[in-house]
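User: Can you help me understand a structure? I only have the sequence.
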Amino acid sequence: MDDFIRGEIDAEIIEDDDSSIYLSIGDLMSGLLMFFALLFITALLQLAEKDVPKRVVIGNVVGQMKSNNINVKVNPETGDVSIQESILFAKGSTELKPEGKAFLRRFIPVYSGVIFSKPEFEQEISRVVIEGHTSSDGDDKTNLQLSLLRSSSVYNYIFYDMNFPTKAPLSQKILAAGRGEIESDNKRDNPGDRKVLFRFQFRSDELKKDIVKTSL
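Assistant: Let's start by predicting it. Here is the structure, written out as tokens:
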């Protein structure tokens, strides 16, 4: 009888020990989940904070384009400024039209002026890329070459034929690139795809990528 009672007591002790183990593991898992949740929230807050300078820059670009009556499309999320082919070039040409040159003489001083209007803007924008884009009409190689020659024509006109107050510092940030038909509608020849983009590369975007990497 004593052995039976002792066996029951031992079984209860083992069950209590098992419960304690399960409870400890559960507490550990809950703690880990809470830790990663806090880490995730912290990363989100850091990302939101890093986004503020970028949005201020974009807002200023939009405002200055409107106040100076410069007819361009500005992407409110990225700050990309889109200039249609018809403004700058004849179809299939890499030579700037007189109207295109006149447009750049109005646009560039204002655009560059925003970048260097405040030290924090200048610091936030690590690079400006002049991108040539084509529609899907024609072959890939020809379109890529056309887009690069067009962006180069814009670059050369800005820095060899124009004078404006922020020309020197802008030359340190800007480069020309050809994208060809990479971002075009491949189902049809869309005139809207033939354009030149002025695209910002933001320092905060680079920092955001680093934050995401370290939080994973």
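Now, to help you interpret it: The first strand starts at residue 73 and ends at 74. The chain has a mean pLDDT of 83. Let me know which part you'd like to focus on.
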